[in-house]
Amino acid sequence: MELQSLPWYGQLAVFLAIGLIVLGIFYYVHYSPNEEQIESIELEIENVEREIKRAEKKESKLKLIEEELETKQAVLEKLKAILPEKEEISQGLKKIQSIIASARLRIQKYDPQNLRPREVYTESPISIVLEGNYHNLGIFFDQLSKLKKIYTVDGLNVTPLSRADREYTIRASFTATTYLYRETATTKSSSRRRRRG
Questions:
Q1: How many whole angstroms separate alpha carbon 187 and alpha carbon 77?
Q2: Residue 160 CB neighbour total at 10 angstroms
Q3: What is the pLDDT of residue 192?
Q4: b vs e for 48-57, b when ≥16 Cβ sit within 10 Å of the residue's Cβ?
Q5: Tens digit of pLDDT for each residue in 14-42?
Q6: What SS3 state is found at 1?
Q7: Distance separating alpha carbons of residues 171 and 189, to the nearest angstrom
Q8: Given 3.30.70.60, 3.30.1390.10, 3.20.20.20, 3.10.520.10, which CATH number is that of 86-181?
């Protein structure tokens, strides 16, 4: 049977059948394997996009943490300005003695005690006994409070002198404590990181 002997709609049906067969062969031979590859690539793209989003979130968190660390380092630097370093202790002792002299008080005892280490700082107490009058003692404490470095006064005990004169009517004993900055392992490593960066 020849193709030309078929009516036009028969010829059309044969051409359509041949076209579908060729299209089916093309789909199974050429397009189908590529479709799996395309799906695989699309899946990989989705995974990579997910990873990028996760990395962006982590990066933004890292920036926040770095900003917070910088803020805390700035606060620490300000605090270090009011907490003397170990080398500054002798200067502080001389400053207190100078304040005592300018307040016209007499030193009966001036005894630096052993350092007491704490977590971030070290206490440096000084046991002091002074003689003078209330007015001069007030001047001393006022000048002590105005020092840049922090000093606390504990155990203040004021008693009248038995052999009092106009200049020396009382005896005051107390412990004046200053605080030394003590660099911990954490602060050392963060300051090293800051210097490198």
A1: 11
A2: 8
A3: 47
A4: eeeeeeeeee
A5: 788 888 888 777 777 666 666 666 777 78
A6: coil
A7: 48
A8: 3.30.70.60
3-state class of 81 per DSSP?
helix
Which of 111, 152, 153, 109 is closest to 131 using CA atoms?
A: 109
For the chain, list residues with pLDDT below 70: 1, 3, 29-37, 76, 79-90, 164, 183-197
Q: Where are the domains of the chain?
A: 1-82, 86-181
> By the 8 A CB rule, do 107 and 128 touch?
yes
The pTM for the full model equals 0.53
Alpha-carbon distances, residue 51 vs 48, 64, 74, 96 (angstroms) = 5, 20, 34, 62
Write down the pLDDT at residue 138. Answer: 92
Nearest C-alpha neighbor of 59 from the set 51, 70, 48, 47: 51
**DSSP label at residue 152:** E
